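Lay summary. Proteins are chains of building blocks that fold into shapes, and those shapes determine what they do. In this project we predict the shape from the chain. Here is one chain we studied, written as its sequence of building blocks.
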Amino acid sequence: MAAPGRRCPGCGSAELLEDALYAQQQLVCAACGCVLAEGLLTTTYSDEEHRREVAYSQSTGQKEQLSRCVQRGIRRVQDLCKVLQLPTVFEETAVSYFQRAVQHPAFHLVSLEKKELLGGCCVFVTCRQHNWPLTMGTICSLLYAKQELFAGVFLSLQKELGLSVPALSLADLVSTHLNSFRLFQHSAGVPAPFVEDKDKMVARTLQLVELAGETWLVTGRHPVPIVTAAAFLAWQSLRPGARLACPLARFCRAAGVDLPPPAHLRLKELLDILLRMASQLAWLRVFNLDKKTVVKHIGDLLQHRIFLLKNAFCVEEEEEQHAAAPGEGSPGSLRAVAPEKGCPEGNKRGREGGARPLLPPCLIQPRKRLRTAAPGAMGSAVSGDEPISDSEIEQYLRGPEEIRAFSKAKGWP
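And here is the predicted shape, written in a compact code that computers can read:
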């Protein structure tokens, strides 16, 4: 059907027809065969009359499709939410964060490995914002990723998108981490003495984690090794007769969880705190307690936790202050304080008597620093490759001709 008022520019005929034999409908003159609208994607005849090209998305009335990379990332986020059994609201929020991150210029030129971790970071941020206890190690184990690389992508996402991520609650983390243990029901892989009531173990583990937080064992550290060590002590203390001989590695295998490498160190630190608390109870001083037998009395120690911590760490500091106060400024007091500060006898007495204050572990046992070599030791060793100074070179110049030749070679004035 011809457009009204439209004629062929070649022959002037008004018989214009729409040719629908091709994918694009074309306007053709029936008299001479001239194509009036060739290769133009248009929406209305007014666009054809003025020969204006129209974008494909506008001509079809459809939106541009997402790229395959974005589609794969969205599916990865959705699959991760299904594996973690997260609510639908969490999934929608994580997908929206991922779409925002992909469109941000800061993530356009990153490596493919970081782009694959971007979806996991969005899920991790969503769980933190909704107070859903999820650790970075869990996400990394599902994505087979390194925690250092994941942490870098997470910090970049938080900075570029301006997201507010609250801190993780240890109480929620304890209950969530213990939910993955296989010690709360009888099965073929779990011996009968190892089965424990879930509520009792969660309550005892939470008390031990709070004790670790009050004694600087949690600050600046990964929470999972501390929770694992606290769960092991709680499990042993509930039935110590049949479980004291079980090591930490076997406990993790029976529970079906991974053993974090720092868990042994956190366990040792917790036992040291418990031994110092046990030394303040009158009915426990008669026993020769060690790191194994103190587990039997964890219930009593946790019941009087505040009192024992105050006596174990604060009273000793007050005694040191009172001992230094009467002789303040006298020569005798300086002699008494000097061994405490610099001499080995003072350090030895502090270690043996357990009179150290309650300080973070990084201050009690600082990391060893590399000792720089003394200048004299470096100078005494002669290898033959040392640089020769100008004054030493001048000693070998004997005649004036050599001096002039050397000056010309070096370009001196």
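What the prediction tells us: Confidence is low (pLDDT under 50) at residues 327-354.
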